[in-house]
Design goal:
single chain, 650 residues, alpha/beta, FAD/NAD(P)-binding domain, 3 domains, six-stranded mixed sheet, five-stranded parallel sheet, 36% helix, globular, FAD-dependent urate hydroxylase HpyO/Asp monooxygenase CreE-like FAD/NAD(P)-binding domain-containing protein, HpyO/CreE_NAD-binding
């Protein structure tokens, strides 16, 4: 009897979906034999790049990683079950394009502006998202080209809307296609999902509309209609993360302003206005933008990791049951971050410390974190206070900063931001990068612990979001040139900082101070008694994850049918502590969990819409990256779920 090919549908053809395909290709010979396979990539956005990295966005928007720090391929550092298949990093790919080694990547195909950028990029450049789009598209084509002829890849440019089952077959409906796709196994790799506003956000929006105010709820900044922001008006902005950085780019350079070099300016830049700019008054719980990306390499090489926060050290605490992250594990986490910092300081800057690496390590090993003995030792080791790690300052950079009024607050905040920038671009301060590398290792271990339910539900509900915020603030910041631009805008009076502990309320019309019968948003902070009013408020952040509020039709239908559930944290007595809004999956391999608690044998999900958090869809080379290891585990589970040989329907 004739046999029909097995089939996999990957919903989401951006870097996560492409990464899964790369790992499928790597393990195919081992796990699938010589069978035939159809792989269907489904995405309304360009394959490889997906929505976030699509070419059709402002050319002003840049990556938050240097060209040498971006790869989609495994290397010898990656510890995984599947084969290691090396490939070029973004920077190596750029060099190959310049050398004419990739026939499809030509100046005519790129256009003058993008080709000029490609020719100017070096290893330490933060490329545009458009250039990254080209790299990701090439990676996908490279992976497809590596597949044997018995594997066929089909690209479907449309949105998946429905998934059903008949017997062992799954049927995926795609907008614009008359016939559903048949698949043995399905992977949901759609990335960040849009969601309708929360109840509180909807209520705020309704009140704002009724009062004649404008409120822009959380969403991808690149998709926000910013035409409602008028030139010259004051805009309240809640959030100082990466969405805020995109907002700044689009409202200032995006409206014709430009930056010029000025050695006398705080950040070395001066802003030339176009006259189309608003004035942004911004705040957040921490009150400052994320720490800048580091602009240097490690002098001492990658520190040996994990050392204090690996499976063996953690297992001592978790052997008898789930533990509290802050109370039990934080001392180990903090010491691991400090190990990354001080390893780089001692081995990379020996002239600034009093011990060599062996002597330092022996004494550091013997001391617990956050003890008077450790504090005394580190003060003796590093006489300059700037060479010592201050985790509280990294987490809350504006603690203790207060001023009698908003005008007096500005130079205080600007000075903190400028000094932080200096330390992240000055090679004297490479210990910051050592700490960052340690945090990446910690991130992977914490993901594993969550998957193994090794944290108490109370700690997961309370502490994991704190850790994610701390990690984002320290490790996921913008390039230094973006911070310089923000400083230039602050100097021009076009970006003003409210300080930490920002709050917002709607007042009026009777209480408003913008004229009789008017309503306003009023904002303040813990740093100053001054307040600021405006008729427009922007929440500059991504929507909170929520499968139940998702605008994705496929996910909504799966949730309604009970084939997908949100991951809910419950206390021992069953009390709901927190609904994460994330798709529940089996942590080991991404298998989708349904309403009965069963893991589907042939449905998988990977990415930020699941409760398994991995740090980015692409990663730095040479880092044993968690994202590549997890992609490998999921891909191998998918291959094992396939029927190797399947009789064709009669």
């Amino acid at each position: 009897m004739p046999r029909r090919p097995s089939s996999i549908a990957i919903v989401g053809a951006g870097p996560r979906g492409a990464g899964i395909l790369e790992r499928l290709a790597a393990s195919l010979p081992e796990l699938f034999g010589d069978g035939e396979l159809d792989v269907h990539l489904v995405d309304p956005f360009p394959p490889g790049a997906g929505r976030i990295w699509r070419h059709a966005q402002s050319p002003l928007l840049a990556m938050n990683s240097m060209a040498a720090d971006v790869t989609m391929y495994t290397d010898d550092s990656v510890v995984c079950a599947g084969p290691i298949v090396p490939g070029p990093s973004l920077w190596e790919w750029v060099q190959r394009v310049r050398a004419g080694e990739l026939p499809t990547e030509t100046a005519d195909a790129y256009g003058p502006a993008l080709w000029a950028e490609l020719e100017s990029v070096d290893a330490a450049t933060f490329p545009s998202r458009r250039l990254q789009s080209r790299y990701l598209g090439w990676v996908l084509r490279d992976v497809v080209a590596s597949l044997p002829s018995r594997v066929r890849v089909h690209v479907h440019t449309g949105r998946a809307t429905r998934l059903t089952e008949t017997g062992d077959d799954q049927w995926l409906t795609v907008e614009g296609e008359d016939v559903p796709i048949r698949a043995d196994s399905v992977v949901l790799a759609s990335g960040h999902l849009d969601a309708v506003p929360t109840d509180d956000e909807r209520a705020l929006l309704a009140r704002a509309v009724d009062a004649g105010l404008r409120y822009l709820p959380p969403e991808q900044t690149t998709d926000t209609d910013l035409s409602v922001v008028q030139p010259g008006e004051t805009v309240l902005v809640r959030g100082l993360g990466l969405a805020f950085v995109d907002l700044v780019v689009l409202l200032f350079e995006g409206r014709g302003g430009r930056f010029v070099a000025d050695d006398d300016a705080v950040g070395g830049l001066r802003y030339i206005a176009s006259g189309q700019e608003p004035v942004l008054v911004a705040g957040s719980p921490r009150g400052a933008p994320y720490h800048s990306k580091t602009h240097y390499a490690l002098r001492a090489g990658r520190p040996p990791l994990p050392r204090y926060f690996g499976p063996d050290q953690i297992g001592v605490h978790t052997a008898t049951g789930p533990v509290d992250l802050r109370a039990t594990l934080w001392p180990l986490i903090a010491k691991e971050i400090a190990w990354g910092w001080y390893h780089e300081l001692v081995a990379g800057h020996p002239d600034r410390v009093t011990l060599d690496l062996d002597a330092f390590t022996a004494r550091f090993d013997a001391l617990d974190w956050a003890t008077p003995q450790m504090d005394t030792f580190l003060a003796e080791l590093a006489p300059d206070p700037l060479d010592r790690l201050d985790l509280d300052a990294l987490d809350r950079p504006l603690d203790g900063v207060t001023a009698p009024d908003l005008d007096s607050l500005q130079p205080l905040v600007v000075a903190r931001i400028a000094e932080d920038l200096r330390q992240h671009v000055d090679p004297r301060h490479t210990p910051h990068l050592g700490a960052f590398v340690a945090m990446l290792s910690i991130y992977g271990e914490l993901t594993r612990l969550q998957g193994e339910s090794a944290l108490t539900p109370e700690s997961q509900a309370r502490d994991v979001s704190w850790w994610q915020g701390f990690f984002n603030g320290v490790a996921s910041g913008p390039p230094g040139f973006r911070v310089r631009q923000i400083l230039a805008l602050a100097d021009a009076g076009l970006v003003r900082f409210l300080g930490p502990g920002m709050w917002v309320e709607q007042v009026g019309p009777e209480e408003g101070d913008a004229g009789p019968g008017s309503a306003v948003f009023r904002a303040g902070s813990a740093a100053t008694p001054d307040t600021v009013t405006s008729t427009i408020l922007v929440d500059a952040r991504l929507p909170d994850p929520s499968a139940s509020r998702s605008t994705d039709p496929l996910l909504a239908s799966l949730l309604r049918s009970g084939d997908v559930v949100e991951h809910v944290l419950r206390a021992a007595d069953g009390t709901v502590l927190r609904n994460t809004g994330l798709i529940e999956v089996r942590a080991a391999d991404g298998a989708v969990v349904d309403a009965t608690g069963a893991a589907h044998p042939r449905r998988f999900a990977v990415g930020p819409h699941t409760q398994v958090k991995v740090a980015g869809a692409f990663t730095r080379p040479g880092m044993n990256a968690q994202s590549l290891r997890y992609n490998d585990a999921v891909a191998r589970a998918i291959l094992r779920s396939l029927p190797v040989e399947e009789a064709a329907a009669a």
